[in-house]
Amino acid sequence: MELEEQPKYGEPRKYDPTFKGPIQNRGCTDIVCCILFILAILGYIAVGILAWSQGDPRKVIYPTDSRGQFCGQAGTPLEKKPLLFYFNIMKCASPMVLLEFQCPTTQMCVEKCPEKFMTLVKAYSNKNDFDYYKQFCKEGVTNTMGIPQILKLGLCPAMLTPSRPFTRRCFPALGQEGGVITVGNNSKFDDGNGNIRDAKDLVDGVKNATLVIEARQVVMKIFEDYTQSWYWILIGLVIAMLTSLLFIVLLRFLAGIMVWVMIVMVILVIGYGIVHCYMEYAALKGEPGADVTLQQLGFQTDFTVYLQIRQTWLAFMIILAIVEVIIILLLIFLRKRICIAIALIKEASRAIGHVMSSLFYPLFTFLLLAMVIAYWAVTAVFLSTSNEPIYKVFNETECEHSRATCEPANYTSSLMRKQCPDSECLFAFYGGETVYHKYLIALQFYNVFLFFWCANFVTALGQMTLAGAFASYYWAFVKPDDMPAFPVFSSLGRSLRYHTGTLAFGSLILSIIQIIRVLLEYLDHKLQGAQNKCTKFLLCCLKCCFWCLEKFIKFINRNAYIMVAIYGKNFCTSARDAFFLLMRNMIRVAVLDKVTDFLLFLGKLLIVGLVGIFAFFFFSGRVKAFENTAPNLHYYWVPIITLVIGSYLIAHGFFSVYAMCVDTLFLCFCEDLERNDGSATRPYYMSSTLHEILWKNKAEEPSSSAARQQDDEDIRLKQQQAQEEDAA
């Protein structure tokens, strides 16, 4: 007796007269993972509560004086003193500043920066000048105290220099006359100790102090730009949402025309980008400094500087030209398949027409994702600001206690002060040595991991919900009479009631891969200075492999959720069934499903391009009609990038409805072909139009050996199934 050869990709589905679409009588799946997910969420809430009780976001917003107090904080004695003043800015020129992120000089909160040059010696001789000078001294200075006593106790700075506020800090108002650095219109100044010094000596101190807060400067400027332009960004996102919704509605009624319009418009928009880049490139010819290379310019926090050199526009032009050529070549090679994909999109439009509520489901997904992102961001801020103020010893001369931890309250009477008379106990940074602070990094890691898990769970819930709704449409023999009254709500209820564990399982696998990718990026960042080429190559390979693995897992998860929505089985079984079903129909997957995804991607690209071009001309002030309307920003690219990213996410959300519909209809079609044969007793559930679409490419490629092999396999399986039924 010969052993019957098992099919390579599993047994095909058999005819079942009782199967009428998504199974109603189902049980809970992947219960262990459901319990694990609930416990993880409870732990996440506990981490959030702990962070909110320990954290203090004021540490990010307000500058901190030498006592660890916040300048300008409402409801405190320093409310009317929003600026930070350095007693001796030249001490910021020490290399230790770049290591410890703190200038070794007294810092205090003041109402306004010094406006004139003055030394303590000169101010002391004039009552009015000394009263002005005392604004920049510590409390306790009186007119009866002598200058040596004031300087010995470190109550006042030795001199004041004209300063300007910058990121809530007072920096010397340095200028330049005839190539000479000046401060207060003078090239030299008295440092208060009887020494005449050049104004350029202040430059290093200002530069190092600026380096310490450079990241915060950029963040604060970006934050200010958001406060100035948030309503325009909101308007732009609403325009992107309305445009996406309009495209989806038009696809419902004019699928063929809209697809060709999208293709032509994408080519025209990218073509316009190429022309605009060339015009900017040509306009900068002969301009001073325009021929500087990007390598020579280096990194600049003001990104508008890059737009003033020709090489930037040349790079943009080359990139857009490459994208344009790739799209045109793809359209040429896929021209026949595009017509079939358009017909498939038309069929998806009919399905969406019967499940119109699916068009608005992305809004629910956006709301849940916004909640997840907001919770993660707030928790991250509170965790990062939950350290305690650490004070260290700063001194000008040799001292064995230099940079040691100290307590400012009793430092004047401490042994360290007696051994180092000229030292001071100043605020250094935020840290801590408690159990909580030791595990702070672990809590941040947990916050990031749960963010990925929750975000992927929300996305998976949307995919399974839409899959269940569109499967209800497909397997309804008489449409829409055999469909449930509210297919989206019915599918959402089934997903949450029975398959929370399955959604958690699939999203957990994806989250683990994503967190590994984050760790690899972190390692790559830390090892940037390493010269070991083998290590760099290994990291590059790992990053590439995990990127591919993430894409594969997303593909498997997506199709597994469709099978779960239909049959109600656990994740692993559904993933295996979906994979085998796709492998048994590999030719159709490659030819139709991916071409449809490409067309929908062009739709997203068009919306992003239109919104991006509008945002560029509006915020950059290139159009005179918008000059007085557009807000005055530090970086006009901030709202532009925000709008481009936001419009892509919005377009992706709306077009994902079509993509999910196409994927669901495709899997259901493959199942239908295996279950039924189109006879009166076993009729197809697919419409005649869909049957014609998905069988059309076979007739067009009679010479394809792979296609003929799949046809033979389909016929063999049909014959085998018929023989088994006759024997039964």
From TrEMBL:
Keywords of this entry: Antiport, Cell membrane, Glycoprotein, Membrane, Mitochondrion, Mitochondrion outer membrane, Phosphoprotein, Transmembrane, Transmembrane helix, Transport
Main location: membrane
Any single Gene Ontology cellular-component annotation: plasma membrane
Catalyses which reaction(s): choline(out) + n H(+)(in) = choline(in) + n H(+)(out); ethanolamine(out) + n H(+)(in) = ethanolamine(in) + n H(+)(out)
Localization: Cell membrane; Mitochondrion outer membrane
Record flagged with keyword Transport: yes
Positions of transmembrane segments: 29-52, 230-251, 257-275, 313-334, 359-383, 448-476, 496-520, 598-621, 633-651
Membrane-protein topology: Multi-pass membrane protein
Keyword Phosphoprotein: yes
Chain spans, region Disordered: 700-728
MF-aspect GO terms: antiporter activity
Top-rank taxon, per record: Eukaryota
PANTHER family listed in its UniProt record: CHOLINE TRANSPORTER-LIKE (SLC FAMILY 44), CHOLINE TRANSPORTER-LIKE PROTEIN 2
Cited function: Choline transporter.
Similarity remark: Belongs to the CTL (choline transporter-like) family.
Protein name: Choline transporter-like protein
Organism: Dicentrarchus labrax (European seabass)
Lineage: Eukaryota, Metazoa, Chordata, Craniata, Vertebrata
Gene coding for it: LOC127355956
